Amino acid sequence: MIKYKYILLVFFIIVSLIHSEYVVKNVITAPTDYCYNGSGCEFTYVVVFTDNEGLGLSGCLNCGLLFYIYSKVGNEYLVRLTATVGFGMANTTLMITDDTTNSHDTVFPTPVCMEIPYPVTLLQPVSFQKYIFANSLDLIDTYERFRIMSLGFKLNVTKGVKWTVTCQGVKCLDPSYSSMNSDMQFITITWESPVMDPAAPVALTQPESFTVTFTDSLTRSTVFTVNNPIANADTSNVEVSIHPSPTSTFVKIPNSLNYFVTVPRNFSSNMIAYNAMTSALEVSVPRGTLVYQDNFTATMLYSNKIELQDTWRSSINFYSNYTLEYKDTNATFLGSLSSPLLSPLYTLQSTLQNIVDQPTYRIVTVGITAMTYASGNTSILMNMGGSMFFRLTPPYPIGIMDGNYGSAIGQYSLVISAFCRSNMGFYYGSANPASYDVISTTPDNVIPDITKVEWVSLKGLTMVIRITASDSDSGVAYIQIGQSSKSDGYKLFPSDLISGTFKSGVFEKVITLEAKEIIDLERILIFDQAGNQAMIDYEFKSGNLYPPFKIFPYAIPLSDFQPSDTFINYFEFLHNDIDCTDTDFVNTLVLNFSTPNNQYRKVFIKLDHDKDYTAGEWDDVYKAFVINFKIPMNPPPGPLFYNLRYPSITLSSFDLVQMIGSKAELRVVSQRGGDRMPPAITSVTPIQFATFLTWTIVIEDLINGFKSGIIQIQSTNDLQPYEFLLNSVGKNQSLDTYVLSIPIPSVCRVAESYQIVYVELEDNGGAKGIYSRGLVIDNGISPLLYLENEITVLNVPCTTPSSDITPPYVVGNSVLGIPLDVFSNTRLVNISFQIKDADSNISGRHIPWCRYYTLYQEFYIKSNSYTQVLANHYIADCSTNLPYGFGFPIGEFYISIHGYADDVYNVGGNEWSVPFQVTSMFNVPIIESYLPVYTDEDQLVLFGRNFGEILTDIAIHISSNSTVNYTANAFSTVMVNIISIPKSNVPYDVIVYVAGVASNTLTVVPKVRQVIVFPTPTPSFTQVPQKCAGTPECSGKGTCTPTGCICSEPWFGIDCSSRVIPSQPPIVNSSSPQATTQVDIIPGSSDSQEEDIISLTTLISIVSLDEYKFDGTLVNSHKFDEDWVFTNSTLEGSQNLRYLYETQVTRYSTTTNITVAMEWFRDSQIIRFADQDLVMNPSTLKYNITMTKYHFESNLNRLQLRMYASIISSESTVGSCIYQDSGNTTDSDSEYIKLQVNGNSLYGRFIKRAIVDTRITAISTIVTSDTENESTNQISSYLAIQIPFYSTKVHIDPDFSILVDTKPAREQPNSLCTDSLDSDSLTTVQLIGIIVGCSLAVILVGVALFIYQYRKHWTWGVKIRRVFRLQRISRKI
């Protein structure tokens, strides 16, 4: 409903301003809120004004404080303004001023100003939903809520209200949907203890009831009192267990304190755990995780990181009888320092070593000393210009040049712009940030610019975005679309260039919205290579244009969301009350919304235990969204908590229950209880033998069972740990022993110690615990929590130390394949090199890595092979396919090698100082991926690169059982759309040819559409009509369905009363796209009810292309002459005939190419156009019309492509009837026009969709009768296809058939007939009046005599005269 309000508002604005000097071209935002002050409403808009006077737009005299002119392009102004109206009023007059300070009254329609109801009232009692031990991070945010509640308030409001919600007596979170057009508000509440020292508790109580206050923008408050349903728990059965045990006198750090808290399942209080550090009186709140739950109890695990040496103590707090109680764990721990191998604290020092200047870039080398890889990997953050950041996460051993674990020396060379305008910020690991002077002598201080943003929406929240940008000095570094607290948004780099140069060009990319993070797209940032930044913003002044979207296209905006029982009109889990004991279960959610945007959107679901969402998509067969998701084995029994995301809205299962009832509950059963505890190591026994070391490890997971894991053991001298991959195959998954062995090196340099540094264990239900160098990561549960102290270190002495402190070295570099085109299909670089050592043998375990780097880009490759030649001689290979565009725009890249080592752990690195050259041709098409395609679909969308900009240059080769070439239907340089391909249930290969150049071969694997078995009864997603057309319904030749008649072959039409007449191929005109068809209907045939031969002749042609203003005023008319270029494009051996016509229309400097493909179908065939399956009946004539860019006078204007259709029958005009009918078809989303003469018709179908700028867009057709050439055996009409404003290309697809009708025209209402007494045209109603008023016998005799005389003069030349007649008509139009 809100969308219609937007459309209506825009319509009123356009209509009311057609006589104004300043015309509103577009309203980008429209309000749906109540007033926000005491005197009336202030509606804020972002509007595009067109200045028709050319006097300029300077301001607004009565727009209040808000009037910003964002930009001016030509005579168009982007403006943000405030329109003010009084209560109960609508519309306002804005006094727009021009550059001469003259004011012009402009009527600006606004919605009716409505006052917020006060006091606001409840339409139904407050609803309650308890969060049963919910863990969802989406919901928990920064607080641990062991027990929280969602309250549902259904209020008497119909517009958006910006509520301020406060609670007295409880903790009240912000309402989930506070400023939406909503009558339902969900408030999340919790009870939290204050942060305090467990040793000094404070007496607190909870009230038996609390209040929730809604305050509107006028500061008026309405208070609701709610009974307190919890905070009165029975605490007698609370059990707490501590790890390490309370008897421990100290805990090695870094480590974690862990305590399990078990309570009755109906425990009605929230619960908070606290840890306190005695010396600093610092209190921390550990995160709690539900690890076990059955029908009677629930167990939470609280883990707290201990990283400082101090005395720690802990307690558990909850409410009993509304009074805060403290359960002291009676555990006090003194932290003591652990071994250096586990310490997360280390010092790195970096220095600027060198700067090498090249013509277009600089190489900055940073030296790093005292490197300690305590976490195995590190991170680098580089800052250019104070705002442009590049974050790198190189793996071990990238950057290391010399040394070992305790004293590694590194070097990092970075390629930056030659136009740097400020110092470079450099952050390496946990080292202090450093700033280095890299300012250029010719710095670029000019900000880059974005001049155009375009996009095309595709299925499944995917879009092609195209941005025109420039930076004259250093060039564009990247363009960032949107951002959030967790994501940098989407980025376009110089490698995404499709035309121009990286200093002034067009960038294009395919991006897809994922559910991990809903990104706000209202801001687009651009950075140049020197670090200068510019921004365009949807809300605030931002250069010379605005982003075309505020959120991801087709992601539902918050303003369109109404959390009510009408928002979702179908919701069904296909399975419920599921027994998941010891087994996973794949369930399906089928849902639909009141106003879905079907194929362009996605829905996502995330269960409480999951980290990521599972996506679902629109199913075109079931007309609903379908999500398949997995429930892991042994979940917590009862209703599972989940989140449903319908971008950009997230609804919890508790919100959904309040909106649509118990259908939103996902109920599961587990006979063994709910296990979310990951596997744990219960004991470790290290043993040192003469030549090797062993660790005997016991792993336990009693319910779900241990599945797999990783354990790393490291030496204090070695930068690279030993890694063991564990698998439970053949083992007892509940409890079993695993033995890890490491050989003691035969040579050494110093004594060393070995210790477990990393453990990752996962069970069969997906629960995972990770321990890394003393710290717990990921879900906060350590797999070592049952171990009382740190794992014992095995110390290995060095009896005969080696004096070798020099690492191996690189010799014999070989690089093949350079230079190469990094925009081509073949980007293979063959890199090989040799490693030698003069003093020690080389370690085959330390495999070298290669770092490839260029301007602000880099990637890493582990050597594909490491082959021993001699004990001190190895050969390595780092060959790889370079990423697309790597090395562009500077045309060069560099390579460095790291991580090779000798057997006494001297690790080395090598920097190749010579750059490697690349080229950039942009002329080879590359297929990278495709939109998912199903076995019942005949459309394929390919994504890739360099598909070109000329449609006729593109051909697609598809190979399965046979090889056929196809032509692209819609395209961009990164996308190709192919329609009418054969449906396939087997994989097939695709190749794209652009101007004869072949792409790579991509194998397409069609998906098999899911067969959904609905619970009884089967759902209906559409409204069932009361009755279908025809008497009887569907004329007895079809089935009445909710969408209308489904006709049995060969019948069709809205009432199934028509049947296709097979005909010979049409007679085509080689000078213009005009087709004439002649059909003889023989007496006695199934197509005839007459005694004589009836000859039918039809004419179809294209007349003109006309441009109209929005008010219907004709702007330009381009009448088509007979100057078309004709090509017979019928394929050899094809049953269908195909003819191609091409012409041009030039307006100003723009030439519009118009291509008409006329295809005649001999047999029935199904084609696909604009995501719609269309049945082509035998003898159907289809027009496929494509037009390139047209020069519109205004973006509000539209085009009409006028066609002409006519049918003439050989039957006498005496006693004949004609009838014209039009409307919507029932078998496809189309309009139809039916021109009927007696019992025969010319039927035209116009699909109500066009492909406009590669987007599927709704269109319509206007039918106008040609009364000048009308008689009762001939009927003609003009068919005006309405084409909206477009930028690059439009594609439409009408078709025509000749029918025989079981219901003659005389029986149709308002048909036009002639009678023997009067040759003038009379309607059926008029004829009935004449018949009633006269003698029936006289009339019949007169008619018989007339017909007899007429037929005496009938000749065989009637066909020739009829064809000449149609030709004369065609010349007239």
Automatic annotation (TrEMBL):
Transmembrane intervals: 1327-1348
Domain DUF7949: residue ranges: 1028-1060
Keyword Methyltransferase part of the UniProt annotation: no
Where does the record place the DUF7035 domain?
A: 674-798
Which Pfam families does this entry report, sorted A to Z? ComC_SSD (PF22933), DUF7034 (PF23033), DUF7035 (PF23034), DUF7743 (PF24893), DUF7949 (PF25820)
**Transmembrane recorded as keyword:** yes
Domain DUF7034, first and last residues per copy: 820-909
InterPro entries, from UniProt?
ComC_SSD, DUF7034, DUF7035, DUF7743, DUF7949
DUF7743 domain mapped to chain residues: 442-552
Q: Enumerate the spans annotated as ComC supersandwich domain.
A: 1097-1299
Signal sequence coordinates: 1-20
Which keywords describe this protein according to UniProt? Membrane, Signal, Transmembrane, Transmembrane helix
- Its protein name is EGF-like domain-containing protein
* Annotated organism of origin: Tieghemostelium lacteum (Slime mold)
